[in-house]
Design a protein that fits this description.
seven-stranded antiparallel beta sheet, binds dihydroflavine-adenine dinucleotide, alpha+beta, Vanillyl-alcohol Oxidase, Chain A, domain 3, Uridine Diphospho-n-acetylenolpyruvylglucosamine Reductase, domain 2
């Protein structure tokens, strides 16, 4: 049977959509959390498959191999470059939205979570089961588990507990032959690779077993807004020196943004938010801050005590009193066009750079820098423990972000040029050997695989930036699990010595 003659047969399955299915356009739109590519021809799959079981994923993989179709796997659809729903050659999307069950084992303090669940659904389910357990994953609740866990997972508890990927203890995975493998069956090397090396290079991760972490009954949050003036630059400078050395219960991140977001063309003031989670009560936080970072002048009236689950809402910017159910919304808040890039910082950045950044950030209505401190637990985990290598020696991560709301190629180019120029400017001040990047803040500017000409040494240019010395091990694992490079994309790990 040819692909076309089998279309009608395929349409009889209630989890497969072709371009002629009434739901196809809505499905295509709904899963693009960044709508930059909505009209692109590379976002039109031959089929969208929304499986309800592992067997249906398995069938899709086998079928695609037979008909020479590529596969894009989508969990939450947040990929910064749209790699879960864009492809230049005929392809299908396996959309895991229907595979989103979460089961918590209170005795073991573990949970199984399907890849199609979101971070918000995970936090919500844990909190409904226990008020002393939590999980150290990202801030945005709509982010999908599949992409987030397989790319690392930075969140506000990483100084205490590491990345989300550091807390994964088992997984169910479907390989290129449609075999369903757990940790024991896949072996430790593949299990290592899918925890931070990007799952889509190797196959499809269906579910993850995670070790939950203990959270205190009361945590404290605060957000101090400061104008980026000379006094604030002094604070940023101190923050650079102390934030990765503070007790690991304390996470203070900085958000630089234009404080005038009105669309009136005025250049705005730039503000810095000192945005924090402390795993403990305010009466412990204040003396700690007086000792370690007195210059910030934190007062107990700046702080709010709450439960850990309430803090996940606060840190995402929900209003006090919003119900926990907001965590279940699968669409990103303030959906807009965006482009992002990332760096890691090993040495404090000189003061004059922050002054220069003030000018640059004020040029963009929504130009944002987010600085996440590392240290603590992150310093204890060896670079090669998982594919994510940015451990001891790194002070913090920078995420550069630009967002815009008007569609159009010119508009897009203008904002993308802004962020590229900012990134070029930062080069002398950030980790340089190599200049590193975080896979989950995917950036195709740092290099891509040439279509039809996948080459290890070319891929090592971008691969070493995400994975440093772990890139070669990832390519070795790829050679064993998918030697024919069936699971491929612009930034998939190539097999070592693959002919083409
Ligand atoms: P999506 O479905 O687009 O998948 C991303 C990549 O993973 C694609 O290559 C896809 O093919 C692959 N993939 C997805 N599911 C898979 C599976 N089951 N098996 C194999 N491969 C699979 N990050 C962070 O660390 N901390 C944070 O706080 C945030 N916050 C945040 C906010 C917002 C608004 C966005 C848009 C993004 C973030 N991120 C983040 C980045 C986020 O972690 C990253 O984009 C993840 O890859 C998104 O995972 P999704 O499943 O949502 O994306």
């Amino acid at each position: 049977m040819s692909l076309h003659s089998s279309r009608r047969y395929i349409e009889s399955f209630n989890y497969i959509y072709t371009p002629s299915s009434p739901s196809y356009p809505n499905l295509r739109q709904s899963f693009q959390q960044n709508p930059r590519w909505l009209n692109s021809t590379s976002s039109r799959p031959e089929f969208i498959v929304t499986p309800y079981s592992e067997a249906e994923i398995r069938a899709a993989v086998i079928c695609c191999k037979k008909y020479d179709l590529q596969i894009r796997v989508k969990s939450g659809g947040h990929d910064y470059e749209g790699l879960s729903f864009l492809c230049q050659v005929p392809f299908i999307i396996i959309d895991l939205t229907n595979l989103r069950s979460i089961s918590v084992d209170l005795e073991d303090e573990t949970a199984w979570v399907d890849s199609g669940a979101t971070v918000g659904e995970l936090y919500y389910t844990i909190a409904k089961n226990s008020d002393v357990l939590g999980f150290p994953a990202g801030i945005c609740p709509s982010v999908g588990i599949g992409g987030h866990f397989s790319g690392g997972g930075i969140g506000t508890m990483l100084r205490k507990h590491g990345l989300a990927a550091d807390n994964i203890i088992d997984a169910y995975f479907i390989d290129v032959d449609g075999r369903i493998l757990d940790r024991e069956a896949m072996g430790e090397d593949l299990f290592w690779a899918i925890r931070g090396g990007g799952g889509a290079s190797f196959g499809i991760v269906v579910a993850w077993k995670i070790k939950l972490v203990r959270v205190p009954p009361v945590v404290t949050v605060f957000t101090l807004h400061k104008n980026l003036d000379q006094e604030c630059i002094q604070l940023v400078n101190i923050w650079q020196n102390v934030s990765s050395k503070l007790p690991r219960e304390l996470f203070i991140r900085l958000v630089f943004q234009n404080s005038n977001r009105d669309d009136n063309g005025d250049q705005g003031m730039v503000e810095v938010l000192f945005n924090s989670l402390f795993l403990g009560p305010v009466k412990e936080l204040i003396p700690l801050m007086e000792k370690s970072f007195p210059e910030l002048g934190l007062d107990s009236k700046d702080c709010s005590e709450m439960s850990w689950i309430e803090s996940t809402l606060y840190l995402q910017g929900f209003k006090s009193g919003d119900p926990l159910e907001v965590l279940l919304d699968r669409t990103v808040q303030d959906k807009s066009y965006f482009k992002a890039k990332s760096d890691f910082v090993e040495e404090p950045i000189p003061e004059y750079v922050w002054e220069a950044l003030r000018g640059r950030i004020s040029e963009e209505r929504i130009g944002i820098l987010i600085l996440d401190p590392l240290g603590g637990r992150m310093d204890e985990i060896p670079e090669s423990e998982l594919p994510f290598p940015h451990r001891k020696g790194n002070l913090y991560n920078i995420q550069y972000l630009v967002k815009w709301t008007v569609d159009g190629a010119d508009e897009s180019e203008r904002h993308v040029n802004w962020i590229r120029s900012l990134y070029d400017y930062m080069e002398p001040y950030v980790a340089r050997s190599p200049r590193s990047a975080y896979l989950n803040y995917r950036d195709l500017d740092i290099g891509i695989n040439k279509p039809g000409d996948v080459d290890y040494s070319q891929a090592a240019v971008w691969g070493s930036r995400y994975f440093k010395g772990n890139f070669e091990m990832l390519a070795e694992v790829k050679s064993r699990i998918d030697p024919g490079n069936f699971f491929t994309s612009e930034q998939s790990i190539p097999p070592l010595n693959h002919p083409g």
